[in-house]
Fold this sequence. Notes:
Number of strands: 7
Strand content: 25-35%
Order of helices and strands: EHHEEEHEHEE
Radius of gyration: 15 Å
Helix content: 25-40%
Shape: globular
Structural class: alpha+beta
Strand order of the largest sheet: 1-2-3-4
Oligomer: single chain
Largest sheet: 4 strands, antiparallel
Distance between the termini: 28 Å
Amino acid sequence: MRGVRISYLVEYPEYVQQLAQWLFEEWDSILGEGNPEARIKKLKAHMNRDELPIAWVAHANGELLGTAALRVHDLEGSEDLTPWLGGVFVGSPFRRRGIGAALCTTVEEAARLRGIQTLYLFTLDKQAWYLRLGWKVLAPCVWHERRGDIMSKVLQNA
Protein backbone atom coordinates (compact mmCIF):
# COMPACT_ATOMS: atom_id res chain seq x y z
CA MET A 1 0.00 0.00 0.00
CA ARG A 2 1.44 3.37 -1.01
CA GLY A 3 2.10 6.19 1.40
CA VAL A 4 1.93 4.12 4.59
CA ARG A 5 3.38 5.93 7.59
CA ILE A 6 3.90 4.67 11.11
CA SER A 7 3.60 7.27 13.86
CA TYR A 8 3.19 7.45 17.60
CA LEU A 9 -0.48 7.21 18.58
CA VAL A 10 -0.04 10.34 20.72
CA GLU A 11 0.50 12.29 17.47
CA TYR A 12 -2.83 11.07 16.05
CA PRO A 13 -5.39 11.10 18.88
CA GLU A 14 -8.17 11.24 16.29
CA TYR A 15 -7.54 7.52 15.63
CA VAL A 16 -8.27 6.42 19.22
CA GLN A 17 -12.04 6.00 18.68
CA GLN A 18 -11.62 3.84 15.54
CA LEU A 19 -8.86 1.78 17.16
CA ALA A 20 -11.00 1.20 20.23
CA GLN A 21 -13.87 -0.01 18.07
CA TRP A 22 -11.64 -2.36 16.05
CA LEU A 23 -9.95 -3.82 19.13
CA PHE A 24 -13.23 -4.14 20.99
CA GLU A 25 -14.77 -6.04 18.06
CA GLU A 26 -11.71 -8.28 17.76
CA TRP A 27 -11.12 -9.17 21.43
CA ASP A 28 -14.27 -8.41 23.45
CA SER A 29 -15.55 -11.98 23.05
CA ILE A 30 -12.47 -13.03 25.05
CA LEU A 31 -11.99 -10.03 27.35
CA GLY A 32 -15.63 -9.23 28.06
CA GLU A 33 -15.00 -5.49 28.31
CA GLY A 34 -18.63 -4.81 27.46
CA ASN A 35 -18.08 -1.63 25.46
CA PRO A 36 -15.33 0.24 23.61
CA GLU A 37 -14.93 2.80 26.44
CA ALA A 38 -12.68 0.44 28.42
CA ARG A 39 -10.53 0.05 25.32
CA ILE A 40 -10.35 3.85 24.87
CA LYS A 41 -9.01 4.18 28.41
CA LYS A 42 -6.32 1.57 27.68
CA LEU A 43 -5.35 3.28 24.44
CA LYS A 44 -5.04 6.66 26.14
CA ALA A 45 -2.58 5.10 28.59
CA HIS A 46 -0.46 4.17 25.54
CA MET A 47 -0.23 7.76 24.29
CA ASN A 48 3.45 8.15 25.15
CA ARG A 49 6.75 8.58 23.34
CA ASP A 50 9.30 8.12 26.09
CA GLU A 51 7.81 5.72 28.64
CA LEU A 52 6.01 2.42 28.32
CA PRO A 53 3.36 1.66 27.27
CA ILE A 54 3.78 3.23 23.83
CA ALA A 55 1.47 2.65 20.86
CA TRP A 56 2.08 3.30 17.19
CA VAL A 57 -0.41 3.58 14.34
CA ALA A 58 -0.03 2.77 10.68
CA HIS A 59 -1.92 5.21 8.48
CA ALA A 60 -2.09 6.45 4.91
CA ASN A 61 -3.94 9.35 3.32
CA GLY A 62 -5.76 10.17 6.56
CA GLU A 63 -6.94 6.59 7.02
CA LEU A 64 -6.10 4.37 9.97
CA LEU A 65 -4.65 0.99 8.98
CA GLY A 66 -3.41 -0.68 12.17
CA THR A 67 -1.57 -0.49 15.47
CA ALA A 68 1.04 -2.13 17.70
CA ALA A 69 2.46 -1.37 21.13
CA LEU A 70 5.49 -1.77 23.35
CA ARG A 71 4.41 -2.63 26.90
CA VAL A 72 6.07 -3.50 30.19
CA HIS A 73 3.75 -6.52 30.63
CA ASP A 74 1.08 -8.09 28.48
CA LEU A 75 0.18 -11.38 30.12
CA GLU A 76 -0.89 -12.01 33.71
CA GLY A 77 1.33 -14.54 35.40
CA SER A 78 4.34 -13.73 33.22
CA GLU A 79 5.49 -10.55 34.90
CA ASP A 80 9.06 -11.88 34.98
CA LEU A 81 9.20 -11.43 31.21
CA THR A 82 9.50 -7.86 29.97
CA PRO A 83 8.94 -5.92 27.75
CA TRP A 84 6.26 -7.07 25.32
CA LEU A 85 5.15 -6.43 21.78
CA GLY A 86 1.37 -6.30 22.10
CA GLY A 87 -1.87 -5.18 20.55
CA VAL A 88 -0.74 -5.89 17.00
CA PHE A 89 -3.77 -5.34 14.81
CA VAL A 90 -4.38 -4.41 11.18
CA GLY A 91 -7.86 -3.55 9.94
CA SER A 92 -9.26 -6.37 7.81
CA PRO A 93 -9.34 -4.40 4.51
CA PHE A 94 -5.60 -3.68 4.86
CA ARG A 95 -4.22 -7.10 5.74
CA ARG A 96 -1.66 -9.07 3.73
CA ARG A 97 0.12 -5.92 2.61
CA GLY A 98 3.08 -5.95 5.01
CA ILE A 99 1.55 -3.43 7.41
CA GLY A 100 1.59 -5.76 10.42
CA ALA A 101 5.23 -6.67 9.77
CA ALA A 102 6.13 -2.97 9.45
CA LEU A 103 4.41 -2.23 12.77
CA CYS A 104 6.32 -5.07 14.45
CA THR A 105 9.60 -3.79 13.00
CA THR A 106 8.84 -0.31 14.34
CA VAL A 107 8.25 -1.66 17.85
CA GLU A 108 11.36 -3.84 17.68
CA GLU A 109 13.48 -0.88 16.59
CA ALA A 110 12.07 1.31 19.37
CA ALA A 111 12.91 -1.43 21.88
CA ARG A 112 16.42 -1.84 20.47
CA LEU A 113 17.04 1.93 20.72
CA ARG A 114 16.03 1.71 24.39
CA GLY A 115 18.69 -0.93 25.02
CA ILE A 116 16.22 -3.82 25.18
CA GLN A 117 17.76 -7.11 24.12
CA THR A 118 14.76 -9.44 24.13
CA LEU A 119 11.08 -8.83 23.41
CA TYR A 120 8.15 -11.10 24.24
CA LEU A 121 4.66 -11.53 22.86
CA PHE A 122 1.63 -13.70 23.35
CA THR A 123 -0.50 -15.04 20.53
CA LEU A 124 -3.45 -17.37 20.37
CA ASP A 125 -3.20 -18.25 16.69
CA LYS A 126 -0.58 -16.23 14.78
CA GLN A 127 2.46 -18.33 15.67
CA ALA A 128 3.32 -19.15 12.04
CA TRP A 129 3.20 -15.48 11.06
CA TYR A 130 5.48 -14.44 13.94
CA LEU A 131 7.86 -17.31 13.20
CA ARG A 132 8.28 -15.87 9.69
CA LEU A 133 9.22 -12.54 11.33
CA GLY A 134 12.01 -14.20 13.34
CA TRP A 135 10.20 -14.91 16.61
CA LYS A 136 10.59 -18.22 18.49
CA VAL A 137 8.08 -20.09 20.61
CA LEU A 138 9.18 -19.81 24.23
CA ALA A 139 6.40 -21.63 26.06
CA PRO A 140 2.75 -22.60 25.76
CA CYS A 141 0.28 -20.87 28.05
CA VAL A 142 -3.41 -20.23 28.60
CA TRP A 143 -5.10 -16.82 28.34
CA HIS A 144 -8.78 -16.44 29.27
CA GLU A 145 -9.17 -20.23 28.98
CA ARG A 146 -7.66 -20.27 25.47
CA ARG A 147 -4.40 -21.96 24.56
CA GLY A 148 -1.65 -19.93 22.97
CA ASP A 149 2.07 -19.40 23.06
CA ILE A 150 4.51 -16.94 24.56
CA MET A 151 7.09 -16.07 21.93
CA SER A 152 10.39 -14.22 22.15
CA LYS A 153 12.78 -12.44 19.85
CA VAL A 154 16.39 -11.52 20.57
CA LEU A 155 17.00 -8.09 19.08
CA GLN A 156 20.17 -7.39 17.16
CA ASN A 157 22.35 -4.59 18.52
CA ALA A 158 21.77 -1.20 16.90
